[in-house]
Amino acid sequence: REPLNSQLHCAYNDLLYRLDRKEEFLASYDRVPKNRTLMLDKAAFLAQEKRAAEAYELYRAVLVQDPADPVAATGTARMLSLLGHHGEASRIFDAVLARYGQDVETCNNAAEAALLAGDPQKSLALYWQSLRNSPHNQSALAGLSVGLRLLGDERDEARNGYDTLIQVFDLEPPEGFSDMAQFNAELSAYLYSL
């Protein structure tokens, strides 16, 4: 009744994914006329599945229709990074950030691409920008640590306290278990059943 309803496609495919019905997953998008929203939604699902080449093709198709589309440009850059084209991804992220501002998620994605392209200085600048806008952003804090560590910057140890804050503890098995291996085996079986 509503073949172009994006929310219905998303909910339906989310359910198919959770039910592990791979043969039907995302097929609803192929049975309707293509439009920007549905193409971007399908690309997001594909990206989530780490099907970067397929997602890249959809993002690029949207960009062909509208070269100024920020969502498609960001998606294209993210997929290029996943595909190992980090330099190209960084250039696209630079253009998106210059044109649309310093969105935290985009800054973090751009910073990751810069790290992967071998430019930790640039990544640090982007992560610092993210933290100015969102001081407790976990992705930015984690990425910042990686960049600092790659540069041998002493601020990494001060922020993360590897020598003072991280320790190894041998845990005792909970009551009813003879050892941790037995507990972990039962825990794994329970988690797997969920």
Summed up, the helix count is: 12
The class by helix and strand makeup works out as mainly alpha
Measured by DSSP, the beta-strand proportion falls in under 5%
Query: Count of DSSP E strands?
Result: 0
Model regions low in confidence, pLDDT < 50 over at least 5 residues: none
Distance between the termini: 34 Å
Mean pLDDT across all residues, rounded? 93
Tell the overall outline: flat
Largest sheet: none
Percent range for helical residues? over 70%
Backbone CA Rg: 21 Å
Structure description:
This protein has 194 residues and is mainly α. 70% of the residues lie in helices and 0% in strands. It has 12 helices and no strands. The two termini are 34 Å apart. The chain is flat and about 60 Å long. The mean pLDDT is 93.
Question: Mind sketching the topology for me?
Answer:
Layout: H1 6-18, H2 27-30, H3 36-48, H4 52-65, H5 70-82, H6 86-100, H7 104-116, H8 120-133, H9 138-150, H10 155-160, H11 162-165, H12 180-193
List keywords for this structure.
194 residues, mainly alpha, 70% helix, 0% strand
Briefly say what this structure is.
With about 190 residues, this protein is mainly alpha-helical. Helices cover about 70% and strands about 0% of the residues.
